[in-house]
Amino acid sequence: MISNSELQNLDLIDLISERHSLVRRISEKAWNDKSEIYISNSEWYIMARIYKKRPTISYVTKNVEISRQAIHKFIQNLSTKGLVEINNVENNKKEKCIQLTPLGEECYEKNAALKAQLENKIAEKIGIEQVNVLKGILKLDWGI
After folding, report:
1. How does DSSP classify residue 56?
2. What is the spatial distance between Cα 125 and Cα 139, in angstroms, rounded to a whole number?
3. Helix (H, G, I), strand (E, B) or coil at 7
4. Element (H or E) spanning 143, and its range?
5. Is 107 exposed, middle or buried (0-12, 13-18, 19+ CB in 10 A)?
């Protein structure tokens, strides 16, 4: 882990990357410490994209920044764990759709609560106003 003094010398891109890596590690550890079901960050990323939806697998592959082959592997892993189900699309023999199972939704919602706790810890440290400003900045169209 990088020290606070080392953070002072980083540019914007590296600062975002360092903080992202840190909160992802903490979030993943919080889940894995409380659950029997190991779920990787990439699997969470896919679960977030399909939560409360029934997208096609091709839609997921086009809208998730992971290689097509890796997405198929992660979806298969999620299916094996009982977190997603894969179904045929009506009137289309080639296409499949994916959705969270009730267990998948339960895991996703429990993890969302853990992430909210982490966000609250950050807010306690830097202030709720700062968290809201940061979230606002990250939601802006950066034109890139």
Report:
1. B
2. 22
3. helix
4. none
5. buried
Amino acid at 124: E
Q: Do residues 86 and 25 touch, judged by C-beta distance below 8 A?
A: no
- Report DSSP letters for 67-106, one per residue: -HHHHHHHHHHHHHTTSEEEEEETTEEEEEEEEE-HHHHH
Enter the tokens of residue 115: 């992430």
Average pLDDT over residues 104-118: 96
Residue 143 has pLDDT above 80, yes or no: yes
3-state secondary structure of 128: helix
Which position has the token pair 């189900």? Answer: 85
Closest among 55, 51, 61, 63 to 87, alpha carbons compared: 55
User: Rounded to the nearest 5°, which phi and psi values hold at 115?
Assistant: -65, -35
pLDDT in tens, 25-80: 999 899 999 999 999 989 999 999 999 999 999 899 988 888 989 999 999 999 99
- pLDDT digit string (tens) for 94-104? 889 999 999 99
Q: Classify domain 26-139 at the CATH class level.
A: mainly alpha
